[in-house]
Amino acid sequence: MRALVLEDYxxxxxxxxxxxxxxxxxEVLIKVKxxxxxxxxxxxxxxxxxxxxxxxxxxxxxxxxxxxVGDGVKKFSIxxxxxxxxxxxxxxxxxxxxxxxxxxxxRKVFGVSCEEYKIDGAYAEYIVVPERIVYSIPDRVxxxxxxxIEPFSVGFHAVRVAELGLADTVLVYGSGTIGSxxxxxxxxxxxxxxxxxxxxxDKLALAEEMGADYVINSKKTDAESEIKKIAPKGLDIVFDVxxxxxxxxxxxxxxxxxxxxxxxxxxxxxxxxxxxxITSWQLRIQGTYISxxxxxxxxxxxxSGRVNLDPFIKHFVPLSEAPSWFNRLREAEKGLHKVxxxxxx
Length: 345
Ligand SMILES: [Zn+2]
Ligand SMILES: [Zn+2]
Description:
By secondary structure, the protein is of the alpha/beta class. The protein contains 11 helices and 19 strands. Helix content is 26%, strand content 26%. The mean pLDDT is 96. The structure holds zinc ion (ZN) (2 copies). Belongs to the zinc-containing alcohol dehydrogenase family.
């Protein structure tokens, strides 16, 4: 099969490699029909994160069709249209037993290679995965939309762990794909005012389309004073989708007492926080990592048409054109919110 291999940092090659084989009874072979590009691939391919050590086949937001099943597979048959969790979890550790598969003791994310592990992803024609991480998708959900179930689940999970209260005033800092899916999840779950900030007008227009009530370009205006006008008593929740120290710090200072700061982005490794305020204002700093058992709910929301994925499926392109699309993504081309590859072309 053909696979897109990150041979060295910033260097892709197409390679003919053997189709992966089913090695365990509970595995299925999936023909990949659509796989979307994650921001972590774009950042990781240059070596910036240490999580794409070459050589590696990246890609963890994928959908496809089952073409072969292991002898022990119970829930799926050949021909089934499916997605799979981006995290390969063990299914039996304490975390898995309690539905927190994203925290599994043996977790591995597809298409990631770091010091602890390496596991090839879905920028290829086929992939083998165990059935416990596979989910069926209804016929009315296209493969390219199904590839977005993973990133949508990341936004949905972030809102879930934030324990959103009814009519809470919320700030979403960073309005790319994940920010957009956080905004949509907030609408679904009954948030009050939703404020989106970014430094890119294009992304702010997207945030507005997703349902943000206020959008603020923090490069052009003093975001803090604008936000104070909208929420004089402070914010209930801030989602830091960027993960930069300066953003997190500013977000924390705009929380009201009892507020929650949800850390979604992974840019900076360490951030200094005002500990006295966290204590005396009873603030909460909450991490959120990928998603856990939200796939069925996300599939339901997407298939019922309650999630707007249209701005993200505009570029469904052949995998053979991947290197040039990665360049365009790296240069943050205007209007290029998401790229989805078709490995059959
Ligand atoms: Zn991702
Ligand atoms: Zn586990």
